Amino acid sequence: MNEPVFWLAPLASIFALYFAWRFFREMRTQDEGTETMREIGAHVRKGAMAYLRQQYKIMLVVFALVAGLFSYLAYGLGVQNPWLPVTFIFGGFFSALAGYFGMQTATLASTRTTAAARTSLAGALNVAFRSGAVMGLVVVGLGLGNLAFWFVLVDLFTAGDPGDGAYLVLVTTTVLTFGMGASMQALFARVGGGIYTKAADVGADLVGKVEAGIPEDDPRNPAVIADNVGDNVGDVAGMGADLFESYCGSILAASALGAAAFAAEPAMQMKAIAAPMAIAGLGILLSVLGVFLVKTREGAGQKELLGALSKGINTSAALIVVASAAVLWLLGIENVWGVWGAVVSGLVTGLVIGRSTEYSTSPSFKPTRSIAAAAESGAATTIIAGIGVGMLSTVIPVLAVATGTTLAYLFASGFDPTQMTQGLYGIAIAAVGMLSTLGITLASDAYGPIADNAGGNAEMSGLGPEVRERTDALDSLGNTTAATGKGFAIGSAALTALALIASYIEVIRIEMIKAGTTMLDLGHGFSVATADASLLDFMAYYEVTLLNPAVLVALFLGAMVAFTFSGLTVQAVGRAAQLMVEEVRRQFRENPGILKGTSEPDYERCVAISTVGAQREMAIPSLIAIAAPIVVGLLFGVAGVIGLLAGGLATGFVLAVFLSNAGGAWDNAKKHIEAGNHGGKGSPAHRASVIGDTIGDPFKDTSGPSLNILIKLMSIVAIVMAGVTLSYTLI
Amino acid sequence: MSDYHLYLSLIPEALIASQLEPKEFGSYYAVGRSGRVFGEAIFFELDPAFRSDDFAFDLADERCVTQPDGAPKSSVYLGIYNVLARIPISALGKLYLVTDDGRTLELDRGDYTPDREHPLHLYQEFCPKRPIVASRLEPQAFCRSITDPKRPVNLPRIAFSDLMLGELAFDPMNGKADDLPYPYIGHLRDVLSDFTANTKDSKLVLKHVREGVLYRTVQSGFFVGDHDHFAYYPFPTREELQSTYYDWWRSAQIAHFD
């Protein structure tokens, strides 16, 4: 690693972890409030840790089995990268570690946020946001630090001539396997977490609010703690693992494609690998700066609070535009302004998707208001309107991704469509640009459940109306950031998956050479050395065209997998929620003192039911996501895998946007009515909107976000199983 | 002197003797002893000295006693039909509003000042019938009118609350109705605007309210009266509800499914 700029990555990683530690320590010194507040906080923390323990136990078994299988494939059959079993475990371990730190911080911070809200809104925002920043900075710190470490280690132990173009391609595609562990852990955190959070939420609401008529966050509801735990499980651990995977995946894919794009110029190769690492490193420094800019005055309104957050995020984003230009110029990378243009394309795409999500789901705009208006005619029209809004909400994000990837491709390829690998490198680096300021964008996501739990704690502790007013203001802000955060996560997942699909061919190249296929027979008497073959040569060799039935069939299969996965996760929420409903009913039935407030419900049992239910229910969807690329690879070969990934990505991305935005719009339509429109609270329109919101819950918090994982996981599974596909495919 | 309380329930109409204190009775009446049923309630505590030949007080004396296990007797029903009409206003004590999950708000009688601000009014009746009625009469005049024995159709006694009409009270056709939770707003507008072309004092808006007590839009409070007597129970202000009575108010705001 003889490129000095590369070292910005490990340094920035240490910087991120230092500030994460500092923010964590600051949070710990804050007042934790009254005994009741501490007690409630302890219940949530205990539940969150119980969930993590259960998840880690199952993960340990799954990771051991999969690592064993990888070891057999690598050392027994010789069809797998020998680094994979180790990088797989490390990827999963560090993603889980980031989730653990994030959950610890969030559950400790919510009580302190409530305590701070007793005297000051600005103080409460400070505690909540900086605690959210711990998650953001831990994710980027551990992610980038690991990538830097693995690059150095694999570089040290890989045999070959560093001056040879194929050498760095081998190194980068080897490090790419780190993504498999992160992906697998994200599957547990996002899919399991998504099922958990909604099972607890829907279960708590159905029996508590609807049947027993007790308010939200009422301590008499046995599922209330599970519900509060769920906020952390879904939006802290789940979102964190999802973005950890995207963050690492985008950098890894960009490095692999960079190495491939400049294989003919080894000097430029290292610069192309260092560029995404350096941009990510700069993003960390600017994210920390952004965190310090988030401040507000006492008694600030909703607009000012949003302004305070936007100031931090936008400043970081604006500065990364300038800083990335400088670092690319210093690096002396070929086509510096083209690569920079690709970075900016990614950043702008992320912003457009965020704004578009806000437009589709905010009650300030027409789409959500149209759902609220439709609620006047009943639940059916509310549902129809929500589905319509959700479908239409896919237009801008898809156009943004289409425009962003086209521009990134054109900029990086110097507007020369034949420079395919440079163009694909541009797409990957656009994803890096989008995720470069993840430190602060994830902070604003993780801040949401902290503020939400703080509100719950204030309710359960019976604090005064002025405290609830402050926590409500923070919670409402958290809802807005959560909606835009989901849009951002989906957009980044789509770009990352696209870059990973492009990287797939590079892995195929390495595996072919390893298997002894040194020449590609392109037909008609043409052949080309595998090491020198272009991407178009591979497309020709594997007949990746729409006229190849294997590609067509796999395209349909990819689309079907996205729908099957969504359907299974939605049904999983229904079944897990049913278990919760039965448990809450049982507790009310067997212990009448609970409703009277004379005896405490068994919170832990509800947490355990949701935890076990989530882990059990995620098994089949997860298995499908992992098995699909392997089975399709074995049946239809490389062309089939590419068709599957393309079908899965195109359908999964659009479906994820639809599900998340429809759910968000239903939720906010209900809030719009509750704010005194269309009859307000208690009106027939309100009842209809509650039904829409309940349907939207698993859409926006389980199936939609889980699709991010599906599209990335299928790509990474295809990458790590490339050797198996090549060795055992039927065609 | 008996050691039990007398409660006049409006939803559903009943006279009940109970050894439970009002708030305990409210909780019991709403969610039952085991918390297996749910339903809101409104009841008055009666003067314990109240007696009438219309009700079997000897039954209460006999059965409303401490149970063998030491528990107080929760309820002995003394009447379930036409009860309000047979209890004088002078016997009514405090009013208790109970939410679905058994949280009780206690209201004292207050001094009534006729509402001269609003030209039009909306009333939710609780007993003996449960319609929503629009009227050009302020609450006391409305009560006197509907209980006027000279009218061919009248009630002996009535309990009701006045509901907010917002801008509709001044401009039924064009006023903003966004935050009013009543079904059939268009019909309500028609009924209210009809007062300009009609000499009627009151008109039926909805025959029966399914949504329960519309606490969110209670304007000034709860009323009970007949042609000669009238009692007013002021409802707390929104600020008081959100601070002093927050738990009850939060519970009253829950959206329930039927």
UniProtKB/TrEMBL annotation, chain A:
InterPro entries: PPase-energised_H-pump. The chain crosses the membrane at residues 6-24, 58-77, 83-103, 133-153, 165-188, 247-267, 273-294, 306-331, 337-357, 424-443, 487-507, 547-570, 626-659, 709-730. GO terms for cellular component: endomembrane system; plasma membrane. Requires K(+) for maximal activity. It holds the Pfam family H_PPase. Its cofactor is Mg(2+). The record marks A482 as: Determinant of potassium dependence. Its EC number is 7.2.3.1. GO terms for molecular function: diphosphate hydrolysis-driven proton transmembrane transporter activity; inorganic diphosphate phosphatase activity; magnesium ion binding; potassium ion binding. It is a multi-pass membrane protein. Keywords: Cell membrane, Ion transport, Magnesium, Membrane, Potassium, Sodium, Sodium transport, Translocase, Transmembrane, Transmembrane helix, Transport. Its main location: membrane. One of its GO terms (biological process) is sodium ion transport. NCBIfam families: PRK00733.2-2, PRK00733.3-5, V_PPase. Homodimer. Sodium pump that utilizes the energy of pyrophosphate hydrolysis as the driving force for Na(+) movement across the membrane. This is Putative K(+)-stimulated pyrophosphate-energized sodium pump. The gene is hppA.
TrEMBL record, chain B:
It comes from the Bacteria. This is Uncharacterized protein. It comes from Halochromatium glycolicum.
